[in-house]
Write the structure tokens for this entry.
Amino acid sequence: MDSANTLILLCGLLLVVSILAAVLSNRLGAPVLLTFLLVGMLAGEQGILGVEFNNPDIAFFIGSAALVIILFDGGMRTHPERFRVALWPAISLATIGVALTCTIVATSAVYFFNLPWPAALLMGAILSSTDAAAVFGIFQSRGLQIKERVASTLEIESGSNDPMAVILTLTMTAAVASGTMTEWHWMALDIIWQLTGGLAIGWLGGRLFIIAARKLPLSFSFFPLLAVACAITIYALTAKLHASGFLAVYLMGFVIGNGRLPQLVHILQVQDGLAWLSQMAMFLILGLLVVPSHLVANAPIAIGIAVALIFVARPLAVIISLLPFSFPWREQMFISWVGLRGAVPIILALFPWLSGVPNQQLYFDIAFVVVMISLIIQGWTIAPVARWLGLEVPLKAQPQQRMPLSSVPSSESLEVWLYRIDKTSPACDRTWKDLKLTAPATFVGIIREGEWLQPETQPMVQEGDGLLVAATVKDIDEVSRILASGGKGLKVNEKEFFGDFTLKGDLTLADVGSFYPLGDLDEGLLSTTIADYFSQKFHRRVVIGDKVRLGDVVLTVRNVSETGDIQSIGVKPVSN
């Protein structure tokens, strides 16, 4: 009994310390995941608490379960537009990119550290995939909004490159343990089945959950628990069939997240907490498992492999994988830099440990050091690099609070939204009737100094007010565009980014040239619309934040329809 209480006390203490340390790390700009790892190490057998933990089976179990919840959460927050923008580039990175990274890292290990080829390829396979937990976690914790094409590519890649890395790791683990290699055509068939099986089972699981959510007479409180339970079941079932369980839960989350369920807001609220708890538990347990003295002994080879991975393997893999998609060099550079390694390589490094291959501890220690270096160097600099490359865009307008009307029997999900008004808000110093909303919304009133001003009084909206609006979830973007703040205190101000003036995308360059100095344009371009000019210039689906310079002005894509057509652009003079 006493030992059980001690264990509970230890777990609670580690979680409390991790949360408090996360506050400090955010102020310092450090990756939160790095903080969790360090707390685990400090609590380990050579740390302050001296906790002895040497059970890779438990670490693998906890890490796998945590990854399921993290990927499920990431899938639910992925908008379908992201798949339309970046699906094929992400798949190229998740397959070709993983294979290239594995090969280049292995070559470096053989050439510089004289590792045998099977061991070097196993090391390359372990480190070949980016980590969804690291990518999702850092983007969310920093509140970083970057160009959709880049963010979508990184998130979909990190959510879908695990099958390739797992297959390569299992294949090379068996090769090192037995001394024989699996024939390449069997490996190719395995990869195809992992991908197709994971996609099929994940899609089916998502659709079945949506049907069940609409039919089952459950309390709303149970649906978040049901969602997590179904995700874990789908993962285990898919893994039992030797397909990719991680890919299945990511796609299942995507299907549910875009199913317009009235219970979705409740599910996301609970899932957000569960995802953070999973990240803490996963990184803490992996931190406990490591022995710092072993890391020091293997530091030279680990640092060398980390340098090869970050500065050679990842950039080359990105350049080659994205060749067919004409990504601008700035975007390729950022995607190369954000090849974050997190818990996935450390968990994959447990495969050799659990299989009992020679030098099993070496793979784990090298993977741990590489992850630490990746989080410190790459994770710490994501936001500055994004701004330096000009890839950060203004944060998407949204309400400060969302309150679902879950008890209302409606075919559409209804919510009440609270908007905090400041001087930059278009609603400031206006009445509700003065606002020209293009989406149906009902004015519920204003909260001013704790008092509710009812709609019948027709109050003037003032700075500091809380504006209450009821509408359907599908109209949140359109309503927020008018009512949300224009960006007071944000690092990227909307007016500074897009300019003071907005033009429609169907205007011709001749029309624009009659108002702005566009420089010398070919006669054939004058009849071209702005939207067509951007499409010709970028050779791909245009996203918000894409820019072109014409003469003395910069045109920036401001709004894009769901079909990818440019609706409006911002215009601003070239900065001196």
